[in-house]
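[job 4471] stage=fold_predict status=RUNNING
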Amino acid sequence: MGLRRTSAISAAFSARTAGRMGGFLLAGVLACSGITAQAARRCYASAQALHHLHHKACIRAHVYREINLDDGTRILDLCGPDAADCEFALVSLDRNRKSVGSLKQFVGTDIEVLGTVEPIRGRAEILLRKAGQVRSRDAREVAAARPRERRVKQDRFRANPTLLKSFNAEQNRAPVSDPAFHGGYSY
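[job 4471] inference complete, writing structure tokens
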């Protein structure tokens, strides 16, 4: 009787533990798949930007020049000089100039832009609000090829100055004055 009851309890415990482990395993798999899906986001060519209107998308393009308007708006021209009509552009308003930073660094390079594709005057545009939306593919490839430098932390240990004043290694006494070490006590 006792053996049968013990095996029933252990079987119930095993089922409960397996259920929890399965839940943890499922949560782990879902979390990992979310991370890999985010890391492996597909970048579309600038010609396909019109197909992704009102969606957050990654667009890859080559920057030919930067156009500065009188009101402070900056536009990155992503179409070649021989193109008749450009279907996609990147726009940075004057109020976002500080958070976006300089755009001259991207002229002549291939970039990837992450943002919401909006239709403006018959073409697709992404409004740049912060510098993290744009990354240079050339700079990323150079950074991946370059070995990383290791930063070594400086030694942070400092001895307590009050203890240093009262302690000398050549003395034949304890470094701390503890009443338990003084004579006169009997145990």
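[job 4471] summary: DSSP finds four helices and eight strands in the chain.
[job 4471] exit 0
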